[in-house]
Amino acid sequence: MSSLARVTLTVSGVLPAPVDCVWPLVRDFGNIAKWLRRVGSQRVDSELLPGQIASQVGSVRRVLFDLNYTVVEQLEALDDELYILKYKLISHPWNSSPFAGAFLNFVSTIQLKDVTMTNATYFEWHGEFDTDHQSADVMRSDIKRRFEAGFHGLAAAVAESSGAARGLLAPPPAERARVAAAASGNLASAPELSERGGGPPGGGPGGSPGEGPSLPKVLWNRTLRQLSSLPLAICELAVIAVLSSLGTIIEQGKPLEFYMQNYPDGARKVAGFVDWRLIQAAQLDHIYTAGYFLGLLGLLGASLAACTATRQWPAVRVARRWRFAQTPERVYSFGGMQNAVVLPNAEVRGLGRVLQQRGFQVFVRDGALYAFRGLGGKLGPIGVHAAMLAIMAGVAYGGLCGLKGSVMVPEGGDFLLSQVLTPKSALARLPSDSDAMLRVNAFDVKYREDGAVDQFLSDISVLGPRGDELLRKSISVNDPLRFRGVTAYQVDYSMAALTVHAAGSPLQPPDGSPFNLPMASLEGRPGIKGKLWATFVPAEAPAPGRPPRGASVVARDFQTVALYGSDGAFVGVRRPGSGKPIEVDGMSVVVDAIVGSTGLELKSDPGVPFVYAGFAGLMVTTLVSYLSHAQVWALQEGSALHASGRSNRAKIGFADEVEAAYQALPLSLPETEL
Amino acid sequence: MMAFDIENILANLSFLSLLFLLFFQWAQASFFSTPVGGLYGMGIANIALTALLLIRWLTSGHFPLSNLYESLLFLSWSFTAFHLVLQRNSNLPFLGLITTPMALFTNAFATFTLPPEMQRSTGLVPALQSNWLMMHVTIMIVSYAALLFGCLVSMAFLIVHYEESKERKKEKVLPQDSSLPTSSSFSSSLSSSSILDGTVTLLPVGFAEAKADREENSITRAPQSSLADRLDNLSYRTLGLGFPLLTIGILSGAVWANEAWGSYWSWDPKETWAFITWLVFAIYFHTRLTKNWSGTRPAIIATVGFFVLWICYLGVNLVGAGLHSYGWFQR
């Protein structure tokens, strides 16, 4: 015990508010975060541990600094008559293993006294603890600074609450803010009043005006805080995942009859409760465009933005401010105890060199060292959120201001872009210079040797207002045509007509030239699988009362057609263009060609550049986030070097690495004083 | 068909080497409790699969990841490659117990359950004729491999963690709360370190002593990390690698879809499940952000992710719906 020293210290001050106004804040043991401010901490949270009763002696609270480390303290005494509160420290991360910066047996007393003459409160904060005698002075001054910061925090909290309700319990913040807002509204003509002043309470029941943030700001801050809550974000992600999976189980975008047939109500409900009424009511038939689903995505976007604003960005700012640790205690508080070490006979510059060899950026000043590596690991997640927001913005922009349409055009056909493109909302406009005529010069299907489709090719011309060709391109499935913000994709095909010679048919022109018969798709008819087209070559003029005789021509692809007679009997197969005639029902039919139609999808999506920028950002930032952001702090104290470090990922690897770095450090012999 | 024969031999070679490796590793682990190796078995399987895929590339003339058979073999290849890389860079005694069954399972599934006509290499349908195929499918499958492996490690972590906590409960008969160091242990460790003794500056200290001192002073270091911790860390690192890959894979697919289908996102079942997988792992990484959720909770989410991954990879295609159904289980 000889090396331990008992440190005592007291901080006192006068608060310009009656004791009844201060005491409720102080005695609220579980909510010390309402007033406690800390040097070097952005954020303080506190709560009683679960199951603890407020203002009960023996109750235990935890105080969380920067969501980073937790201190647990227990209420030992509470005297409402004499305004005394005593508590002791139960656990502190620095005390988990013995070292010079620890403070053991920490007990503290806060006492208030009523200064009746000036309606003020005397505040005294006393603390004592054991620590190593070498670090006693450092620790005392550090704790003293903390108590002082706490005092200033209390003064600010009192000033905020005293205006609203003097002598009463502090009202909830919203109410406080409302009063403050009303007061500042009254005094809008008195701009010389400072925004944040601990001025004496007085005046009317409105209290001291102009203090604290305004109501919209309070609400805004609170909304931000709640939006950035991690459990909320996780819930949003989970709900989006579950809803998305529903959309893959329940068929999307089918007509109502489909759902009535497959999800009947009554006794035969799917899974006992799913029927078409539920599907209709919950919009499960088009879940990905349902209002609540889009709203949920919007909420996720808001959470992303709020998280970046209230958590990630401040964390980066703090990281920047944390540069040097000026006391050994700071070294351990910044770096944590996991990798903390006191190295005897070591020099800070030596550590700097070792770290530099390991790829760290090293800063040394006055015996203090700060080193970091992999800053991308810290900035990456911010980029991820920003990229997600860019994608969402792009999707929303494209969804509101985009145009879309699809068209089936036979070879030689043409159409105006503005005829096909329909706006997705009232905001959408076709870029004024991009209206043009599209002409399909040819449509071709290439087949492989085994008969499977190799590629669909459409030869397309873009024609200007006077019929002049602006652009010509042969598009295929992976190679669309782009023209001034409008893109035309090859997505579908059909058969428009069959060109035949049919000697003996009433349709055959007398000059022997071929003629066209329209082809109809049989896809989806009962007993028909896949794509199938057919047409009919009449062998006689239509007469009322009985079906005409003739040849039925059926085609599955552009390579062959099958011909059937009037009696339904199979007659034969011909390749279009082969020129070989076939005898059906007294006609001699020559199949010259199948006129194809190309199915084009047209789109104008102004959001794509944003979406692509977001994609690029997301690809890079998720990879960069994989880097681990490692930081090392060290401080020279005499011949000893206090060092510690932390890393946000790869913790075990980092621990091994700093250990190796410590071991690699050259020893410096202490200067002997003999 | 010479090429087809060679392909058969290579597929069987990779399967057999993995099968023997599996038996060998289980024997090592259960009878001799020696660290599990597997460099040679994995190496043979890896080389055989590499050769197989390269031959298919040469004979078919297109990138050999166009149907389920090829993608399963590539997944198997990824597991073997993963094993070889991790085996070199970290000494994990249990690695093979996870990678070998995975590689074997995917290999056997491809070789024995798929009918021969699905194993045959066919031409590419029009939508797949793009250079994006190479990037999108490769990255997706490598990310599946990394994520599946990370999820399995998480599941192993859950088991080990459960066992360790059971043992810890048994040991917990100590009267003292370990979070409160007793003053005696504090002072004893302090007195043993001369730097804090105040006398050190007065005495000449030799190098050897100082070195010993330094090791003494390392007492503040955490104890050697337990198996559970190592598993936890490994799963975090692998999932941390698989997640960016999954992101890149999905996004490259979206860009490709915008080229081929006219829309970067169309809520096709495969897309949707890839998105769901992405969300599950996004949840995983966010639960790891909070200190008090570390440990079992992310591991449970990773376990969920394991099943979501299989739905995404195979389940969607077994149902056979959507734009991604070509070359797979077609009716």
TrEMBL record, chain A:
Membrane topology: Multi-pass membrane protein
Compartments, as annotated in UniProt: Membrane
Region annotation Disordered: where it falls in the sequence: 188-215
Ribonucleoprotein found in the keyword field: no
Classification via InterPro entries: Cyt_c_bgen_Ccs1/CcsB/ResB, Polyketide_cyclase/dehydratase, ResB-like_domain, START-like_dom_sf
Domain of life: Eukaryota
Record domain ResB-like: where: 232-508, 548-659
GO cellular component, one term: membrane
Compositional bias of kind Gly residues: 196-210
Alphabetical GO biological process terms: cytochrome complex assembly
SUPFAM superfamilies: Bet v1-like
One Pfam family linked to the record: Polyketide_cyc2
Keywords: Cytochrome c-type biogenesis, Membrane, Transmembrane, Transmembrane helix
The protein's name: ResB-like domain-containing protein
Organism: Elliptochloris bilobata
Automatic annotation (TrEMBL), chain B:
A UniProt-annotated Pfam family: Cytochrom_C_asm
GO molecular function terms noted in the UniProt entry: heme binding
Subcellular location field: Membrane; Plastid, Chloroplast thylakoid membrane
Residue intervals of the Cytochrome c assembly protein domain: 65-324
Position of the signal peptide: 1-29
Stretches that traverse the bilayer: 39-58, 92-112, 132-160, 239-257, 272-287, 299-323
A single Gene Ontology CC term: plasma membrane
Oligomeric form and interacting partners: May interact with Ccs1.
Function, in words: Required during biogenesis of c-type cytochromes (cytochrome c6 and cytochrome f) at the step of heme attachment.
Family stated for the protein in its record: Belongs to the CcmF/CycK/Ccl1/NrfE/CcsA family.
Name of the molecule in the record: Cytochrome c biogenesis protein CcsA
Organism: Elliptochloris bilobata
Gene name per UniProt: ccsA
